[in-house]
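Sharing a chain and its predicted structure for anyone who wants a worked example. Both blocks are below, sequence first, tokens second.
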Amino acid sequence: MRRLELDPNEGGVGFQIAPMIDVVFVIMLFFMVMAGEVKVEKELNCQLPGTVDTAREAAFVEEQVIQITTAGDVLLNEEPIGKADDKLLPNLRALLMRVKANCEAAKTPCQITIASEAKTRHGRVMDVADACSDAGITSLSFNVTEEE
């Protein structure tokens, strides 16, 4: 390989000012054009968290499940609420009245599902339905669990 030797007397490769001025003018032109594109900030229309407006109905439905065993015991959301020998179910009636009041305060539909086992007496299911009726609950659904 041969080495390239430069003669210092042969034309100088000094600082070129013309390309530097071109670059400065292009940058200045870019900033002048972009200065017109700046957008003024505007007020955003958003609501911050705070009090909840209950004037309209909420979108969720809270369902309560009343289970009736074959022996006649009544459970509300898997918690015992009535014995098999208690026909009037006063605890269930009082609790359903509170549930109905809470649903009305939250403006949500009150949904009750009565789930009984396959061999439960129909009279016991009617006792639970009567308790729901006394509490003012009109949206009932029924479910029968099959034995395995």
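Comments welcome. The chain has three helices and five strands.
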